[in-house]
TrEMBL record:
It comes from Maridesulfovibrio ferrireducens. The lineage of its organism: Bacteria, Pseudomonadati, Thermodesulfobacteriota, Desulfovibrionia, Desulfovibrionales. It holds the Pfam family LepA_C. Gene3D superfamilies: 3.30.70.240, Elongation factor 4, C-terminal domain, Elongation Factor G (Translational Gtpase), domain 3, P-loop containing nucleotide triphosphate hydrolases, Translation factors. Belongs to the GTP-binding elongation factor family. LepA subfamily. Belongs to the TRAFAC class translation factor GTPase superfamily. Classic translation factor GTPase family. LepA subfamily. It is an enzyme of class 3 (hydrolase). GTP binds at residues 16-21, 133-136. It catalyses: GTP + H2O = GDP + phosphate + H(+). CDD domains: EF4_II (cd03699), EF4_III (cd16260), LepA (cd01890), lepA_C (cd03709). GO terms for biological process: positive regulation of translation. SMART domains: EFG_C (SM00838). This is Elongation factor 4.
Length: 598
């Protein structure tokens, strides 16, 4: 096809507004996915994505389409994830697109991520087509939502596309709009090759698979390609497109999207954002790269059994191959033994990695409470980055402690403003701005310590606003705060995995609540367990777990032997997630209690 008949576009939306459903309908209407292979959310390939109904990894698919004008087009649809933690994936997908379909749920309206994604699209100079979705629902309010799109985003919405991605109503009009309203790519197939790597992953059969978009030039199977930043040269062994299954092609030219394999061993051989060129005729200027993503949330992951250390390490290595945003390094804990300190973009990212480890690698894990990175300025002038509270230097060595702050933008209906403000104030937030979008919707901006929103802020926000609030955040800077380390001692031994950093004003309350919650989480043992909370070695709270002997067999004395065996097994099962510390057994839940205290 001619370059003028190519359209490269993404679908962007706030989470749950219907991106993936629309992508499914498009694949169906164009006949790309027949009834037989029809599965809900075709593009969400990972099981986990399907179960959680969220799109984690962006996917791209080539769709042949005969338009109403009688011409044949190639549409390259790039699905994007919708959650804040994955906005780095969104920006990659957008860099490979020329236009975007902005899906807005007509029963909800413009939400925080709608706006955040529009800004990313505008940063990439994309043409944006607004689409009102879910008009099959009685609660759809297209007039109000069209007005919001005009007023808040500034897109013309006088004659909007109104669809139901679920039933397929008017989805044909979406395809026509893609052809008539989005620009064709520009680029010259005869210029030196310049292609943008917008995704790459590790496949156990083919090695590294690279997704790219060609800006200029032509690439053929067998070509010697060069990666711009590293100057490394590779032979293209496989060249193809996803349509929707992998399909080999002989060559691809300016404007096209495809994948290649080139005997690359690691993802770093083809970094996302880098430029591919030909070794024989390299381009002079690369595509401007992407911002590097930085892990913001850290936690320790430990095998339940020491013998599972090596398999866990192997599993982490494999996961890292497919997710450059995830990092890990060995660490050891006096309480938990040998394990790993792992870094994540955010909490959802962390949950997903933990779930994947358990699911794909059958790993049994103990996860410690997540922590942000603190900056510790020492009296001797040194500055340390602390990603593990137990590594915090003694108070006597410290000059000051800084913590990351983020800017929160919360969209909320009028009637919940009071409870949102209250929640933000409780989280040590500083109000920056409050704007009325319309007479009934408000955008509230706060600067809040990231640690305060890290754990349950999102859930709390949802429950305080009956689910109506939406939020977006970005890390802005580090600020000096009055922070202290809170330690937990069990039978007078400090347990490093329980240490947390908290604000001084709430440290006493936090310590007391933590000790109490641990008391409830730690089962009775054969001897007394004493739990203490301490700040700078000063004990501020103390709880006891009374001794108890749990004798399961005694209960069914005289019963049949198979029942006894079952009970024993059940008891063993219950112990699996227990970590033995000295002679005390501590269940996994106890390590998470740390999060919920205070
Ligand atoms: P995404 O997070 O933007 O990818 O949203 P999904 O495509 O996963 O859709 C979220 C939920 O909305 C799912 O339960 C869909 O079935 C539902 N949904 C999507 N489009 C429509 C629609 O047009 N009408 C109705 N009634 N539900 C829809
Ligand atoms: Mg989705």
């Amino acid at each position: 096809v001619k370059i003028s008949n190519i359209r490269n576009f993404s679908i962007i939306a706030h989470i749950d507004h219907g991106k993936s459903t629309l992508a499914d309908r498009i694949l169906e209407i164009t006949g790309l996915v027949g009834d037989r292979e029809k599965k809900a959310q075709y593009l969400d390939k990972m099981d986990l994505e399907r179960e959680r109904g969220i799109t984690i990894k962006a996917q791209s698919v080539r769709i042949p389409y005969k338009a109403a004008d009688g011409e044949d087009y190639i549409l390259n649809l790039i699905d994007t994830p919708g959650h804040v933690d994955f906005s780095y994936e969104v920006s990659r997908s957008l860099a490979a697109s020329d236009g975007a379909l902005l899906v807005v749920d007509a029963t909800q309206g413009v939400e925080a991520q709608t706006l955040a994604n529009v800004f990313l699209a505008l940063d990439n100079d994309l043409e944006i087509i607004p689409i009102l979705n879910k008009i099959d629902l009685a609660s759809a309010d297209v007039d109000r939502v069209a007005r919001e799109i005009e007023e808040i985003i500034g897109l013309d919405c006088s004659d909007p596309l109104m669809i139901s991605a679920k039933t397929g109503l008017n989805v044909d009009q979406v395809l026509e709009a893609v052809v008539t309203q989005l620009p064709a790519p520009t680029g010259d197939p005869d210029k030196p090759l310049k292609a943008l790597i917008f995704d790459s992953w590790y496949d156990s059969y083919q090695g590294v698979v690279v997704l790219f978009r060609i800006l200029d030039g032509t690439i053929k199977k067998g070509d010697k390609i060069q990666i711009f930043s590293s100057k490394l040269v590779f032979d293209v062994t496989t060249l193809g497109v996803y349509s929707p299954e992998a399909m080999n092609v002989k060559s691809l030219s300016a404007g096209e999207v495809g994948f290649l394999c080139a005997s690359m061993k690691e993802l770093n051989d083809a970094p996302v954002g880098d430029t591919i060129t030909l070794a024989s005729d390299p381009v002079e200027e690369p595509f401007p790269g992407f911002q590097e993503v930085k892990a913001m949330v850290f936690c320790g992951l430990y095998p339940v059994e020491p013998s599972e250390y090596e398999p866990l390490k192997g599993a982490l290595e494999k996961l890292q191959l497919n997710d450059t945003a995830f990092s890990y390094e060995p660490e050891s804990s006096t309480a938990l033994g040998f394990g790993f300190r792992c870094g994540f973009l955010g909490l959802l990212h962390m949950e997903i990695i933990q779930e994947r480890l358990e699911r794909e690698f059958q790993a049994k894990l103990i996860a410690t409470a997540p922590s942000v990175i603190y900056q510790a300025k020492l009296i001797n002038g040194k500055v340390l980055e602390i990603d593990n509270p137990s590594k915090m230097p003694e108070a006597t060595e410290l000059e000051s402690l800084s913590e990351p702050y983020c800017r929160l933008e919360i969209h909320v209906p009028n009637e919940y403003v009071g409870s949102v403000l209250k929640l933000c104030e409780e989280k040590r937030g500083l109000q920056q701005d409050m704007r009325y979008l319309s007479s009934s919707r408000v955008i509230i901006t706060y600067e809040v310590p990231f640690a305060e929103i890290m754990y349950d802020f999102f859930d709390k926000l949802k429950s305080h606003t009956k689910g109506y609030a939406s939020l977006d955040y970005e890390i802005i800077d580090y600020r000096v705060s009055n922070l202290v380390k809170l330690d937990i001692l069990i039978n007078t031994e400090p347990v490093d995995a329980f240490s947390v950093i908290v604000h001084k004003d709430s440290a006493y309350a936090h310590g007391r609540s933590l000790a109490l919650k641990l008391k409830r989480a730690i089962p009775r043992q054969m001897f007394e367990v004493v739990i203490q909370a301490a700040i700078a070695r000063k004990i501020i709270a103390k709880e006891r777990v009374a001794p108890f002997r749990k004798n399961v067999i005694a209960k069914c004395y005289g019963g049949d032997i198979s029942r006894k065996r079952k009970l024993l097994e059940k008891q063993k099962e219950g112990k699996k997630r227990m970590k033995k510390m000295g002679n005390i057994e501590i269940p996994q839940e106890a390590f998470l209690v740390v999060l919920k205290a205070g």
